[in-house]
Amino acid sequence: MTRPAMLSKASRGRLSVCAATAVPKQFKAVKPVGDRVLVKVDKEEAKSVGGVLLPASVRNKPTAGAVVAVGDAKTIKLSDKVIYSKYAGTELELSGEEHVLLKEDDVIGVLPGTDKIAQLKPIGDRILIQGAKAEDKTAGGVLLASESAEKPTFGTVIAVGEGREDEETKQLVKPNVTAGATVMYSKYSGTEFEEDGESYIVVRESDILAQLA
């Protein structure tokens, strides 16, 4: 019997542990309702880059997977490879495999076949930004250690989602920023990624503070 996957969540300074809901064996399929999608979660990385086996407590929990069932979602299709918010959705164990049931708005973006974050297609009003390089020296020329370098909160827009639906008019409202713009964003916003020595962040349009020129 497969042990249910566990998820730690921080809530008001407390740490709680939630077990995945095991779908009874007589049920072989889950049909999402409304704008929800069912995602089969990518396998956890059990080894470090150097091949060292990692204990379960230090493994990075995947937040990506393939869409295996779709409700009435408008921007996500069956078989899409998606990235989703870390603590979003309801975890399910179906036929011994880990899945997560998500609202469409919990999906950050759709990955291309290459799985490159730099080519991520953001969903809704989200925006993909390539972060600026951190300064490695102080104003006086003192070399900073990487952990003490001030982290920039601005970068270049790489891709923009199609926009959000206005609650009253039901019309699609496109973001006001375009690819190529340099923007400043809220310090603690978004979801961060590292790839090929570059930093990326996906934020909502409301987290964009200003465009820089």
TrEMBL record:
<protein>
    <recommendedName>
        <fullName>20 kDa chaperonin, chloroplastic</fullName>
    </recommendedName>
</protein>
<dbReference type="InterPro" id="IPR020818">
    <property type="entry name" value="Chaperonin_GroES"/>
</dbReference>
<dbReference type="InterPro" id="IPR018369">
    <property type="entry name" value="Chaprnonin_Cpn10_CS"/>
</dbReference>
<dbReference type="GO" id="GO:0005524">
    <property type="term" value="F:ATP binding"/>
</dbReference>
<dbReference type="GO" id="GO:0044183">
    <property type="term" value="F:protein folding chaperone"/>
</dbReference>
<dbReference type="GO" id="GO:0009507">
    <property type="term" value="C:chloroplast"/>
</dbReference>
<keyword id="KW-0143">Chaperone</keyword>
<dbReference type="GO" id="GO:0046872">
    <property type="term" value="F:metal ion binding"/>
</dbReference>
<comment type="similarity">
    <text>Belongs to the GroES chaperonin family.</text>
</comment>
<dbReference type="InterPro" id="IPR011032">
    <property type="entry name" value="GroES-like_sf"/>
</dbReference>
<dbReference type="GO" id="GO:0051082">
    <property type="term" value="F:unfolded protein binding"/>
</dbReference>
<dbReference type="Pfam" id="PF00166">
    <property type="entry name" value="Cpn10"/>
</dbReference>
<dbReference type="InterPro" id="IPR037124">
    <property type="entry name" value="Chaperonin_GroES_sf"/>
</dbReference>
<dbReference type="GO" id="GO:0005739">
    <property type="term" value="C:mitochondrion"/>
</dbReference>
<dbReference type="GO" id="GO:0051087">
    <property type="term" value="F:protein-folding chaperone binding"/>
</dbReference>
